[in-house]
């Protein structure tokens, strides 16, 4: 696994541990989903429901694939051992990426405006300077928007252990771990 991927794993684990108890559990994903939904007040109920379903699927996949000791939690060691295995998580990550990006496009024009992007990424827990660097790496239009499809690919790439030099690496510029 590339060093960049290891840094991404550390950061995302710390953010997913939304209740701060040092392990991932179902409560983390419910809490995270509620935070993100709250940041997307203008999105429709279908988009919000899809995001909640994606977070629940994410947790269910982690619990099924990674909870080696069956205690209903996923430790950092369990998470880091295999979360960046595209063959095991591709469908789950794609569903999450698509639902998050769709939530960022409440008017359905295929574009995500910077303020909503920042709100959603802040709700997840990323640091503002890193969010801004990521948005810029996605090469926004003159109207300060990015393509939904660009964000989806960026999220999917974030979870690939063989990727380096990707826009998502900006999120670990100064990790909050």
Order of strands across the main sheet: 1-2
What share of the residues lie within helices? 55-70%
What is the CA-CA span between the terminal residues?
Answer: 19 Å
Low-confidence stretches: none
Characterize the main sheet.
2 strands, antiparallel
As a whole number of angstroms, the C-alpha radius of gyration is 15 Å
Q: Helix-strand pattern, N to C?
A: HHHHHEHHEH
Tertiary shape = globular
Derived from helix and strand composition plus strand pairing, the structural class reads mainly alpha
Average residue pLDDT? 90
What is the helix tally? 8
Number of strands: 2
Beta content: under 5%
Task: Please give a structural write-up.
The protein starts with a helix and ends in a 19-residue tail after the last helix. It has eight helices and two strands. Helix 2 (26-38) packs antiparallel against helix 3 and helix 3 (45-66) packs antiparallel against helix 5. The protein has 177 residues and is mainly alpha-helical. The model has no long low-confidence stretch (mean pLDDT 90). Strands 1-2 form a two-stranded antiparallel ribbon.
What are the defining features of this structure?
177 residues, mainly alpha, two-stranded antiparallel sheet, 8 helices, 2 strands
Lay out the secondary structure.
Elements: H1 3-16, H2 26-38, H3 45-66, H4 76-82, H5 86-103, E1 111-113, H6 114-124, H7 128-137, E2 145-147, H8 148-158
Antiparallel strand pairs: 1-2
